[in-house]
Amino acid sequence: MSKEVVLYDPRGNRLTKALGEPEGSAFRIMSNGPRLSFLRNDLKGAEPKQWDHRLYLQMYYQHPWLKAAIDTLVRTATNTGWEFVPRTKLAMINQNELAVANEFFSKQRNFMGELVKIYEDLLIFGDAYLYVVPDRRRKPARLKRLAPWTIHINASNNGKIKNYVQKDLTQPLEDAVVFSPHEILHFKQNDPGNDLYGLSPLESLKQSITADLHMLNFQKMFFKNGASMGTFITVEGATDAELERTRDWILEEYVGTDNAYRPVIMGGQGIKIEKGVATHNDMHFIQGRDYFVSEIMAVLGVPPAKLGRMETANRSNAKEQDKSFRQETISPLQNHVENVLNDDFMRPILLLEETVFEHSKNDIRDAIEQMDLNKIAVNNGLNTINEIRERMGYPKIDGGDIAFIMAPTGAVPVDRMDLFFMPPQMNTDKVPILSRSPEKEATPKFVPSKPEGTPATNKSLGVGLTESVNAARMWLTKTDDASLRQALTYTYDAQELAPHPLFEQAIDSIRKALTIDDEFARQGYVERAQGYIVTLIPEV
Q1: pTM for the whole structure
Q2: Domains with residue ranges and CATH for the chain
Q3: Which of 22, 210, 425, 522 matches a 20 to 30 Å C-alpha distance to 111?
C-alpha cells in the first residue's frame, strides 16, 4: 500500500511546492547495462536508474585500492565537522537563525554518521538521498539516509519532479512508498546524459577494476596451485601406470608453497621439463596493476601520497599533493553537499535566509596559510585590521579602519603615500635649548625638565645633572670595563634627573661597548655615546 505524507515548516505552513526541481527537459540516455525487471504499477509511474548498483558495491567490497581511495575521500571530507555561518561572509551571524539551526541539528542522533553515508553513496553510486523525517506535528525532526538503489524518480517530460518512490526491486512483494519532492534531499554526481539521476565515478572504472580483479584471482590461484608457474613434464615411452606414479611423486615432493624453488631431479631417459606459463615479469603483471591503480586515483582525484604510495613522493611534493587534494577534490565535493543542504533544506524548510551550513575549516595548515595571507594583505594596505577581525568574528578596535603600508620607517597610511618616499630623519625640532653664548650662538643648549611633583625651590637639580654629565664624560675618555661601568652609572643618573631619548641612546651605546670584544667596535660605541652627551649639553 502506498504511503503519502506532507510536511509543515516551523511556522506551521504546509509545504506544497516542489523545491529543488531540475530545470529543462527530463533528458535520459539509457545505459547498456542490465535492466531490472519490475512492474510499472509497483513504482507508481517512476523509472528506475538503469545502472547496476550491485556491481558498484561488489567493486567497492572486493578491490582494496578502490576502497582505500573512497574511504580516504570520505574521511577527509567529514573529519572537520560542520558549523553555521552567515550567507554573506562580511555579514554578522543572525543569532535567531543560529538558534534554530543549532536546535535542529543538536537533536540529530548521529548526523555525522548520516553525512558519512551520503559521501559514500555519492562516490559509489553517484546518487545519495536524505529523508526529512517529520515528527507527530509533521514538522522536520531529523535527516535520515535512504539507500540509493531503492529510490526512483517520477518526473514529467519537462523535468518537473512529481515524487520520489522508494521500493527495493529485489523484493517484489514489498509495497512502494511515495515521497513528495520537498521530503527528499537528492545529492548527485553530474551526469551529462541524465538530468534526473547522477553518474557513479565507478562506471568508467568497470573494465579496469574487472581486469585488476582477474589479476588478483590469478595471484590467488598461483599460490593455491602450488606457487608454480605451470610446468610441462614430458616422459617419453612411459606407460599410464608410470605416468600416474610419477605425477603423484612430483605433487608430493615439488608442488606446494613449502616446496617452492626446490630443484626437480628425475631419473630415466626421454624426460623433458618445460615452463608452460610466463612469469609475472614476462606478463608485466606488476606494471599492469600499477596502471590500474593510477586510473583509480585519476578518476577519483586522489594523489598517490594519500594512499601511501610514496615511490614518487617526498616531504615537499607530498605537502603539495595534500594541498591540491583538499582544494581540487575535497572542497568541490563538500561544496556540492553544502549547496543541497542549504538550498533544499536550510532555506525552504527551516526558513533560514541568512545562515548556511558549512564544513569547518579547522585544518591547522590552512589556518597558518590564511594568517600569512591576512598579514600580507594588512601590511600592503589591501585590507584593514578591522576587516580581518570582522572576517574572523572578532570585534573592531579603535584605529583599525586605517589602511596602511608597512615601510622600514613604520606604518604609512595609504592616503599619505608621499611619506613612504621620504628618507628617515631625526626629530630634533623639539629638543629644548639653554641660553646661547656669543661664541657658540648656533649650538643648542639643553634645559633639564623638572620632574613632575618636584618643588620649584629645589636648587640642587642643576648641580646634580652637571656633576653626573661631567663624570660620565670623564669616564668615557677610557675604554676599559671599569671606566665604562662608571660612565654608565653616571649616565643613568643624568637620565633620571633630565629624561631625554639621547641619554637613552648613550646608555645603549655604553652597554654595547661593555659586551663587545672588538677594540675598534668598542671605541666606536664609546665615541657614539660621547657624541650623544655632547649634543645635549656641550658645555656642562
Answers
A1: 0.58
A2: 1-226+283-362 (no CATH), 231-276 (no CATH), 376-421 (no CATH), 460-536 (1.20.120)
A3: 22
